[in-house]
Hints:
This protein is of the alpha/beta class. 41% of the residues lie in helices and 16% in strands. It has a 7-stranded mixed β-sheet, with helices on both faces. It has a 3-stranded antiparallel β-sheet with strand order 9-12-11, covered by helices on one side. The two termini are 28 Å apart. 49% of the residues are buried.
Amino acid sequence: MLIIDLRSDTVTQPTEEMRAAMAIAPVGDDVYGEDPTINELERYAAALVGKEAALFVPSGTMGNQIALLTHTRRGDEVVCDKDAHVFYYENAGAAALAGCQLRPLDHIDGRIAPEDFSNAIRAVDVHMPRTSLLWLENTHNRGGGTCYTPNQVEELATIAKKNNIMVHCDGARIFNAATHLKVDVSDLVAHCDSVMFCLSKGLCAPVGSILAGSSEFIDRARQTRKLLGGGMRQAGILAAAGIIAVGKMSARLAVDHANARIVAERLAANGVNINLDKLQTNIILFDPRPYYGVADECVLALKTRGVLASAFSKTAVRFVLHNDISEQHINSLTAVIAELFKKE
């Protein structure tokens, strides 16, 4: 049986070009700053996102936690949306590690309204925590891969700067946002003090993420990375794949977006409850009712037919398109959809 793995773009395999580059990568001790391939990746990544410096980290979650620890002090409050990855999926790291309180706000498809952010900023009062950081997520995972535009980010960042608040972008899939909006990644984070993006999702590298910001920020972040156990040694083997990820694999993400549109339109044509207007990148969210009572039932039915998906909530199933999904996979998936969702 052909297995179609749509659980996440984290399941992507490194390309043959990546494997070859990893095999011959020149390496050194990165904790000493002596790994030439790590250094090359960090310079390259910083330039791509328009920041002074960058830091290679083992995972996106670690990159986000380093940003929290570097931007804030214990007892601070961080404004995010109520479905943000840092609030939903990072094991309360903001509280456990940084000693920060998260202030989750309502959002529209992953985007915080400027007036809601303004209203959430704490007054200077001995009874209240200091609002020190605004947290944006672009693209937004639980929002269904939706994007902030550069203007939307600038509007929020302008409010933040007027109130001495730093801005961090969880850009795990920021290259997907840039692809959809047809802008440079640097335009999306120009008004952010820091950005984290993943190499190991749609960009197909086996391991790693990048945290970027000012030189002073990255100097402090590097020390925090060591504190968390993220200082690796001959990690250039991993960075070699990361260089190809940002340099080459970022240019093909439009294929994943187009495939997502094909699949989503097929679901809609079969009467599945899905909002095509919200589909922007490579993430599809749909409601399997009334065909299935809960999402878990739909995920199981898909699995028995060779399609792996995620139950995103009791009433939402998620598909994520990526580099390892071929035309053959799309054709097979279309047949499964026709079988499972038979429009009356």
